[in-house]
Amino acid sequence: MNLYHLRVFQTVAVHEHITRASEELILSQPAVTKIIQSLEHETGLELIERHGRRIVLTHAGHVLHSYARRLFALEHEMEEALAVLRDVETGEIKLAANTTTGVYLLPPIVSRYRNLYPQVTLYITILNSHEIIEQTLNWTLDFGLVEGDPATLPPGLHVEVFAQDELVLVVSPDHRWSKLDELNPEALREGELLLREQGSGIREVIEHALLLHRVQVHPLFTLPDNEAIKQMVMSGVGAAIVSALAVQRELVSGDLVRIPIAGVDLRPQLSLVRRIDKQLSRAAQAFCALLQPTSEIE
Questions:
Q1: In percent, how much of the chain has pLDDT > 90?
Q2: Cα separation, 101 vs 86, whole angstroms
Q3: How far apart are CA 154 and CA 134, in angstroms?
Q4: pTM for this prediction
Q5: Burial of 212 (0-12, 13-18, 19+ CB in 10 A)
Q6: How far apart are the two ends of the chain, measured CA to CA in Å?
């Protein structure tokens, strides 16, 4: 199979658009279309379907896209390995972190890394843990930083725990729970909690811990952003269980009140994950080395 044709197909698959792919590749639209048709003729399978101005991959297209992604990830890995032989302080790193790690733990690490290796390009994305695992397994990321129980992670991943989070229940000072010494877990099934979206590591930890107390949570709202949840709680909309790191200032200022949950201690682990068969560049290894394991987030 012509690898250049495969690269053109990969670009079309990523953009799901012939025009945008042709602009990135600096090729005419007819040339891109002709290459896709050549691939379809070579494979004997339809790879794309047109839906208006956009295209969607057929099942065969998804299969080819998956292999192409792995192939070009390996090519990139080869280039990184050769670059290391020339200069250990160059290259690029693609990583993603869950919100807690990305917002509260990563900035000082990135600052330190940039001081040590200013020529290394960092591509950092904030995603939920499920998305990070998916993109790590499909070769999109060099590694990811996720939150949750390492024992529940899928096979094929190398996992290194580097810290431990603490989740706390918080309410506004005007909330009816704000004067309680502690809250019975059963009260959390009442539709009071604001939770992160499905796929969030924090949500999975919360749901699993409460199921041990036979409490199935029905959230009041589901939001994809920790800051939005915090603002909702401070406005008196409901309660939330969030990382203690996210509410340190608000607890000190009195804008939020922490309520212990009877018999529930939420201390999920933060882990670095990468494919077992992924060879990290020296630049990536140097970044991972800065994630010093600790027993608990200070």
A1: 72
A2: 32
A3: 10
A4: 0.69
A5: exposed
A6: 53
